[in-house]
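Notebook B, p. 112. Complex prediction, attempt 2.
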Amino acid sequence: MPDMDEVRLVRSLKAGDRQAFDILYEAYKNMLLRMACLVSGSVEDAEDIVQETFVKCYLHIGSLKKDEGFQSWLFQILYRTAYTYTKKKKREIPDENAGMQEDATDGMTSLDHILHSEAQQMIHAAVSSLSFKHRAVVVLFYYNDIPVREIAKILGTTEGTVKSRLSAARKKLSEGLKQLEEGGGEYEKKSGICSL
Amino acid sequence: MKRSQESVPCKDICSGDREISRALRRSVAYIEAPDGLKQRIDRQILEALKKEEKMKKVKKEIGWKKLGIGVVAACLLVGTGCLAAGGMKYFMGSSSSRPDYTAFSDLEKAEADAGYQVNAVEAFDNGFAFRDITISEESLVNEAGKKEETQKGIHIGYEKDKEDVMLYIRRLYQQEQEDGGLEEEPAFDIIRQIGEVQAGFRQISNKFVPPDYELTEEDLKNMENPNFNLAYGSSEVEINTGLSVSWTQDGLRYELYGTDLSVDGEELLDMAETIITAG
């Protein structure tokens, strides 16, 4: 059910109301930052991604067809921005450092330094071992509690693909968490990122 | 308006997944947007809006220019300008892509068609020789797009070793003479006095771009240079260097021009002098 306050704010923003943008920013800033952080694995990168997302939101709000779909549209911008950002960053990483940035990780390093509890690190390491596309599905499903049908719309794919990615991710997460609980040595060597 | 993770309805999460969900949220719960983030966003939006506004302005200005430039290549260097009085007015022209005459002896027919006699030569000392003649429809257009005066222009083509030089001739418009000519004469790189005629050489960097082309920062910077010309309308980005010598003689406007030529300004002025003294 769309939030009527939000719909009104979106309409005001479309009409050029800057204050509406400020309110929407306040409502979404932390949620987007945390989502970006989970997807990119870096607080610094997440800030850049969120900055770009809100700028695109402001400049292209006119292209949003259904005002009720603002949140999905905003998430869509976030994921597309994050995808482009992480791809670009991956290209910029010199080969000698590639050991820290294997295919599945797409840049997960900085967050490890600020995760305190072992459980948090386990979750983070398990999520970070997934590819970007699988990670996006995991974040939207587990973090945002968004139904599969809606995730498919946000990511521009089919429900079947989302379910398939979710199933694969769930399996990998379970294996990763299990390995971590059993000692984590092998997993640590494989991923090159876990700091347990 | 309040956003809460817990307020989002969940239909797909089974009980076994809730542990992952909680752990995932806890792992980033402490992360909050820093104060400076909003300022960075506002600054970037402002810069983007300024750039957009600047591009709109430039495109609007170029939009007028391309009216004069796009239709006939001959107008590339002379076809734009505004009159000192009576508001913004532009020169437009159109012609067939096929020449009307292919023999120099047909020049008299072309003159009869255009309604005036011109100075022209069949060949130049540097080897450029006559190729063909094309007649164009020329007009002086006001800002509303209305044609205020019309006439015919003569384009004489010369060639040498795959290089082309065109001689474009038209009558001065009535308003051009009454209002004291062009408000802004182009800034010439070289001026040569030939008898009573003053001929000016000018070199311009031309960039032709597709209609949906987005201007770059470099383009915007170049636009401030009077010797840079940007025109919309080509299918792809094309860059060339335009060289021209222009003068007014016996109530006629002459323009001898070409692009990416091996001749320099002085040599083009020599060619112009041959034409000026031919009469």
